[in-house]
Design brief:
Blueprint (H helix, E strand, L loop, with lengths): L14 E5 L10 H13 L3 E4 L14 H13 L3 E6 L15 H6 L3 E4 L4 H11 L3 E3 L15 H11 L6 E2 L5 E2 L13 E2 L4 E4 L2 E10 H4 L15 E5 L8 H14 L2 H4 L2 E5 L6 H14 L7 E5 L10 E3 L2 E5 L4 E4 L8
Parallel strand pairs: 1-2, 1-3, 3-4, 4-5, 10-11, 11-12, 12-13
Antiparallel strand pairs: 5-14, 6-16, 7-8, 9-13, 10-15, 15-16
Length: about 325
């Protein structure tokens, strides 16, 4: 079994570095950025923005070396206790060969993000065993108007500031997939909860994140899926009618490379802006590609491209049990300073 490296927990007064491991698809919204910084500072954290955080380049991702340099500097700086991602986008897999892996091992830190940052999170875990965090980002979670969702913040606090096991997780009371607004709260709807696509029970380390991004790691030293893991999968609907085709293709690849032969359980996120028919088709695909498997599948979970969202630590032990309607985090993800 891989030896885990758990980063030190956060405490009030710590400094958090903001980086862009992935290239954002859209220009940075300055008011949203400042709102997120103001929120993080209000919690008692100090903020340091990496030199290339705001870099963008038309049609292409900013140079991978620049983004890797920012991460290497953050890991080398003893004053930085955590590294939060600015946003998702694309291209995070390109920085992995450029990281100072010795520095990562000798100065482990909290690294958090989701979407395209999935490549970085799972690469760090696969390469050196660093526990990482699939959770909110500076522009996708902490920038919510007029303030971040309490559910999102509660789970960040429970997991990053606390070395004890969290235990059973619960759905949020409400959720939204409405597009964020700069001057008014998003419209919320009642959360129908999580539901089991297949009954059963399982325990194992959490791995995964964004489905298509995760598959950019297949065949590389940064591929995290292993025997007995609980795989978490999330996707995003860009409204171009290609989502289900893309999911179909990605699940087929997972099947072909043996992912579903290895894992012990599967957790699937909510997906934004799906019709009821599309939700049924999405779940049909999940079941079709895992036919004849026995592992439990929990669907509609509050992580990834939904709001509010959980923070899920990559690499720690988790449990699923449909009989007890249980999804739990069974060990602490950080250590006391």
């Amino acid at each position: 079994m891989r030896k885990l490296i758990k980063p030190p927990k956060l405490i009030s007064g710590d400094t958090v570095g903001i980086v862009s491991p992935a290239s954002a698809f859209f220009p940075i919204n300055e008011s949203a950025f400042q709102r997120s910084i103001a929120y993080l500072e209000k919690t008692g954290l100090h903020i340091q923005i990496a030199p290339h955080t705001r870099d963008q380049r038309k049609h292409l991702n900013p140079p991978a070396q620049h983004r890797a340099d920012d991460l290497n500097q953050m890991f080398a700086d003893p004053n930085i206790k955590a590294i939060f991602s600015l946003s998702g986008g694309s291209g995070a897999n390109a920085i992995l060969p450029l990281l100072d892996w010795h520095q990562v091992q000798v100065s482990p830190k909290i690294v958090m993000g989701y979407s395209a940052v999935t490549a970085l999170l799972n690469g760090l875990y696969a390469k050196v065993g660093l526990v990482t965090f699939h959770g909110p980002m500076t522009l996708n979670g902490f920038s919510e108007y007029p303030q971040p969702f309490a559910y999102t913040c509660h789970h960040v606090e429970r997991i990053l500031f606390n070395a004890e096991p969290v235990g059973k997780l619960e759905p949020s009371a409400q959720w939204t997939d409405a597009y964020p607004s700069e001057d008014q709260p998003r419209t919320m709807k009642t959360n129908s909860g999580w539901h089991w696509l297949r009954d059963g029970n399982a325990s194992g380390p959490l791995v995964g994140g964004n489905l298509r991004t995760l598959l950019t790691l297949a065949g590389t030293p940064y591929w995290p899926v292993s025997q007995g893991a609980i795989l978490c999968l999330e996707e995003v609907n860009f409204g171009d009618s290609q989502l289900l085709r893309n999911v179909d293709e990605s699940l087929n690849q997972c099947q072909q490379i043996g992912v579903f032969d290895q894992i012990a359980g599967l957790i699937v996120s909510k997906i934004n802006e799906l019709t009821e028919e599309e939700k049924k088709l999405f779940e049909f695909l999940i079941l079709e590609y895992t036919t004849d498997r026995q592992f439990p599948i929990l669907s509609g979970v509050d992580f990834g491209h939904t709001a509010p969202q959980l923070t899920l630590p990559i690499g720690i032990q988790a449990s699923l049990d449909s009989e007890r309607d249980l999804f739990s985090l069974d060990e602490g993800a950080v250590v006391s300073n």
